[in-house]
Structure to design on (1053 residues):
């Protein structure tokens, strides 16, 4: 990147800078005119100069010029105005000039603000673009949070400065010069005084500010290091807790903050010191004016109007001067910041832009062998991972790389994936150096998955399809306001040197997954998920999540059919007892009392969990149904029992998991509440306390808690209350609850709850598993299996995929690599988090899936266990960075080499 | 059957007879009430032991795999505990337990059971006593078997 900020700005904003300069120069005319006016007003109509005779008039707006050679030219002879009329006219002109100056200022500020923002956008994009082109080795040394803070925070002040870069010195310099000139014209000696002070300011202040710049640089570096450390703590939070080092981290952060504080405080001290001096110098001048100017007026060598004008003009001098000096400081400050950032982003061996260039059309398949030629790779410490390896992988060949602990097979796989660059030798595809092939070829015709998986914080689907998003493939049509917005987006992107690729286009390359469009892509997805044995996990996720009904309409449409099918199947297998269905007119014993009362899924906070008992409408329904007192007494009974059982246990006791009514922390509160309410009549208990107690009874399930509190009479009362609740439901609660309806899908509930439409019996320990497997059967029969898998694919994997297990992440990575059906599939210990049995199973599936539909990609697999090598055409063995054996599984096993040793 | 009835049943299990009532109630509350129909399997030989069962009503057969198929070695009746060995010594199940009739049982989870032992020395001693008793019976059986050869 351009090391000089001024040149960077000039290169990209030359035209705009010149334009705004012109505007600024133009704005000087009314600005200067507004200086002269006060003198005219004071001397003319106010003091009466030229109006000595009553009724005298003077021409107003008389335009005449003295041109050389031609002499006086009169353009307009003006209006003749009296003293008062002249005063009003001149004052109105003054007002007009104020407006014109303001409008100029508005235009200039807006223009340069936009200019700065565009440049900021350009710089940020350039920086991220560079990150995308850094060589892999760079990322071993840099903390991601530091890069992020550079892109986001450190270049931010540049945006504010860029608009002012050339403008400010001209504008302020012009203003200062104008003011100075005006003073000079009025009185040379007063002018000289102003000049001397200004010169002192210009020389002294920047000198004092040098230290500010040094401190500013330190502030930037320490702040960047701080954000790097904070990022590290977040990423490594597990290690912090495991080793009880949180206080070490606290100390480290406190020390850093202390240093930053010191630097910043130093900075303030200097800043205000300089400010003080600057202000003092600025105030010194008027002191001299009053004294010397006043003296001259008394002597009669200066008229009062002149002195007032000089002082008035001087008011406009310190402002621009101060800002000019500030601008100079900003310039230096920003230049330092810019340099610091640019230094960090100037890296040797940046990937050429052509390698990552946008390519719409798919490249031809890689039909030439992939070879390592005299390949050596060293790690950061200089130890050789691979030492002059030469080998060739032919298209269609399956190769197992077996490696001892220091073998180096992983480094070879990384080199094939271009994640590790050779120190000498090269990887070649046919005759081409692999590193010189565009990513459009290697990223589409080759796939790579390793044990070190990175997932983006998005849905499973987005992560799975990520490997297909190479280029925007469909043009999107926009209408109306959206079209305008889109045009504006493109326009602005171009003005800031950003690409105008449409993120809303369909980026998914269906053809590479063997599909023709969104409608049949899912089939390919399902196959790769089956291959890596991930479908079941995703189905489970689907069952536990609530489906987005905009996307998954089929599930909602066929819910009645699905519920009926489940019911029939359970009956056929004699398992009806496992699920107690919800019936609008009956009490469901396996559900809580709260669920039975509400008979619906809370869709908002008003009726959810603890808020339910406190809801005034709900309380009034209970009262009308004659349940308020019963449920209160029941809650008291539950509280007593729970406290008797649990009061003596330490709060971290695992038994608390079984206590559904209250948490360990709430026990003391309930204990005192119980003491207080024990012998108090119901009527004397406050609303709040009632709600506290009643809410306990809402969590009660008779077959599970077995306190014997539920009678037939109570159950029928609850069902009656349920109906009453819905009959008079106030409109503001209509959206807070979705009533259970056997013919309707409940959007707020999980898919599982929707299909079950009931509760699983509490006394069948294996019921959930059995029901799940029956459910998958039914979904398959009804053709809804895919739909549920699709719901599961909506699951958000969390930051870095941490909501998935390590094994699931690795499986997903392999599925993603398989999905694009590459010519070379490189797998680097991809399933290390799985047990050996599962690894073998996935290995078999992947080999089969990769070769389905007449495809025959080359597969290079760094295996975790030598026994897995059996399933490959060829086995290559590495030891101490050397290729030691190469042959078929049988020949190596027959030999007496390292492989045989490793297997046995 | 309500919680208090279960506590009454537990009291009659020799293993728990020495434990104070509140502890037993807590044990009952934190255990799951499970029911099986005849022929259903509570757990299989070789499974990992994760819970012990107290039979509340009904009967269960204890089966051991052999070359000629499963052999019934014992029958459990109400108030007996089954499956406690595997959770005590972290081993896999030594036998299969199958409901011989409609069966109601209390399923005591392993961690709950161990926690309770830790907190109640009476119970631990009682368990030791029962186990020692069984050991001496087994030893006697072994001597009988050896001398019969």
């Amino acid at each position: 990147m351009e090391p000089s900020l001024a040149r960077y700005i000039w290169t990209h904003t030359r035209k705009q800078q010149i334009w705004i300069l012109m505007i600024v120069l133009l704005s000087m005319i009314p600005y200067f005119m507004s200086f002269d006016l006060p003198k005219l007003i004071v001397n003319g109509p106010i003091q009466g100069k030229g109006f000595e005779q009553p009724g005298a008039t003077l021409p107003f707006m008389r335009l005449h010029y003295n041109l050389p050679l031609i002499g006086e030219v009169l353009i307009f002879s003006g209006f003749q105005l009296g003293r008062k009329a002249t005063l009003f006219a001149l004052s109105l002109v003054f007002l007009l000039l104020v407006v014109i100056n303001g409008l100029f200022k508005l235009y200039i500020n807006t223009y340069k603000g936009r200019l700065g923002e565009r440049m900021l956008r350009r710089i940020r994009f350039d920086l991220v673009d560079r990150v995308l082109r850094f060589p892999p080795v760079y990322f071993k040394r840099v903390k991601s949070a530091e890069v992020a803070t550079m892109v986001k925070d450190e270049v931010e002040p540049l945006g504010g400065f860029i608009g002012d870069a050339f403008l400010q010195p001209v504008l302020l310099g012009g203003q200062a010069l104008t003011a100075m000139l005006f003073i000079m014209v009025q009185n040379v000696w007063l002018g000289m005084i102003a000049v001397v002070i200004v010169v002192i300011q210009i020389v002294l202040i920047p000198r004092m500010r040098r230290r500010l710049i040094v401190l500013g640089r330190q502030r930037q570096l320490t702040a960047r290091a701080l954000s790097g450390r904070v990022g590290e703590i977040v990423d490594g939070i597990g290690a912090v807790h495991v080793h009880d080092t949180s206080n070490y981290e606290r100390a480290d952060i406190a020390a850093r903050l202390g240093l930053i504080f010191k630097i910043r405080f130093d900075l303030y001290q200097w800043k205000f010191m300089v400010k003080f001096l600057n202000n003092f110098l600025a105030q010194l001048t008027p002191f001299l004016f009053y004294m010397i100017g006043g003296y001259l007026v008394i002597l009669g060598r200066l008229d009062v109007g002149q002195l007032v004008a000089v002082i008035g003009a001087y008011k406009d001098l310190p402002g621009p001067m101060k800002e000019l000096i500030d601008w100079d400081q900003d310039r230096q400050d920003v230049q330092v910041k810019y340099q610091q950032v640019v230094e960090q982003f100037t890296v040797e061996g940046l990937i050429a832009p052509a390698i990552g260039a946008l390519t719409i059309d798919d490249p031809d398949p890689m039909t030439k062998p992939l070879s390592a030629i005299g390949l050596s790779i060293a790690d950061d410490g200089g130890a050789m991972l691979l030492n002059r390896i030469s080998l060739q992988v032919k298209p269609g060949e399956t190769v197992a790389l077996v490696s001892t602990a220091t073998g180096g097979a992983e480094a070879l796989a990384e080199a094939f994936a271009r994640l590790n660059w050779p120190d000498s030798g090269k990887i070649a595809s046919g005759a081409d150096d692999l590193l010189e092939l565009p990513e459009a070829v290697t990223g589409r015709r080759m796939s790579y998955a390793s044990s070190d998986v990175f997932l983006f914080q998005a849905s499973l689907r987005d992560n799975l399809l990520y490997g297909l998003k190479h280029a925007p493939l469909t043009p999107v049509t926009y209408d109306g306001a959206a079209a305008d917005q889109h045009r504006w987006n493109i326009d602005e992107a171009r003005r800031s040197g950003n690409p105008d690729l449409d993120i809303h286009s369909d980026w998914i390359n269906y053809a590479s997954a063997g599909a023709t469009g969104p409608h049949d892509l899912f089939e390919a997805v399902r196959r790769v998920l089956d291959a890596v044995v991930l479908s079941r996990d995703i189905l489970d996720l689907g069952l536990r999540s609530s489906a987005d009904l905009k996307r998954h309409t089929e599930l909602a449409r066929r819910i009645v059919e699905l519920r009926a099918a489940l019911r029939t199947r359970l009956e056929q297998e004699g398992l009806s007892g496992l699920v107690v269905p919800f019936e609008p007119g009956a009490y469901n014993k396996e559900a809580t009392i709260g669920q039975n009362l509400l008979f619906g899924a809370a869709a908002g906070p008003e009726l959810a969990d603890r808020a339910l008992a406190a809801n005034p409408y709900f309380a009034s329904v209970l009262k009308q149904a004659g349940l308020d007192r019963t449920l209160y007494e029941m809650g008291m009974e539950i509280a007593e029992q729970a406290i008797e059982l649990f009061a003596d246990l330490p709060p971290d006791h695992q038994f608390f998991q079984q206590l559904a009514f209250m948490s360990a922390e709430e026990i003391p509160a309930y204990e005192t509440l119980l003491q207080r309410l024990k012998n108090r009549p119901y009527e004397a208990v406050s609303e709040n306390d009632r709600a506290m107690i009643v809410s306990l009874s809402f969590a009660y399930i008779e077959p599970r808690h077995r306190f014997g509190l539920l009678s037939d009479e109570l159950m029928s009362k609850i069902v009656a209350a349920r109906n009453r609740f819905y009959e008079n439901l106030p409109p503001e609660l209509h959206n807070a609850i979705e009533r259970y309806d056997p013919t309707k899908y409940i959007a707020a509930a999980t898919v599982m709850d929707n299909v079950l439409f009931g509760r699983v019996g509490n006394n069948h320990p294996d019921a959930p598993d059995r029901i799940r497997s029956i459910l998958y059967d039914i979904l398959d029969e009804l053709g809804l299996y895919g739909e549920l898998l699709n719901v599961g694919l909506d699951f958000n994997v969390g930051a870095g995929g941490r909501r998935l297990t390590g094994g699931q992440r690795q499986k997903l990575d392999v599925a993603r690599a398989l999905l694009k059906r590459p010519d070379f599939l490189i797998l680097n210990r991809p399933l290390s988090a799985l047990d050996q049995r599962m690894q073998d199973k996935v290995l078999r599936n992947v080999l089969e899936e990769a070769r389905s539909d007449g495809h025959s990609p080359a597969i290079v697999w760094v295996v975790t266990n030598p026994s897995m090598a059996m399933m490959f055409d060829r086995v290559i063995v590495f030891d101490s960075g050397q290729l030691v054996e190469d042959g078929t599984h049988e020949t190596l096993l027959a030999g007496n080499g390292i492989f045989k040793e490793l297997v046995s | 059957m309500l919680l208090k009835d279960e506590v009454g049943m537990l009291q009659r299990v020799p293993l728990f007879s020495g434990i104070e009532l509140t502890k037993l109630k807590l044990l009952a509350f934190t255990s799951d009430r499970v029911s099986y129909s005849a022929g259903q399997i509570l757990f299989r030989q070789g499974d990992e032991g994760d819970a012990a069962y107290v039979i509340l009503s009904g009967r269960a057969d204890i089966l051991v795999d052999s070359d000629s198929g499963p052999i019934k070695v014992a029958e459990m009746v109400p108030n007996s505990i089954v499956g406690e060995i595997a959770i005590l010594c972290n081993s896999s199940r030594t036998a299969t337990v199958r409901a011989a009739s409609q069966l109601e049982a209390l399923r005591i989870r392993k961690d709950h059971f161990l926690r309770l032992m830790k907190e109640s020395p009476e119970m631990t001693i009682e368990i030791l006593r029962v186990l020692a008793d069984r050991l001496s019976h087994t030893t006697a059986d072994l001597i009988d078997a050896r001398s019969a050869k």
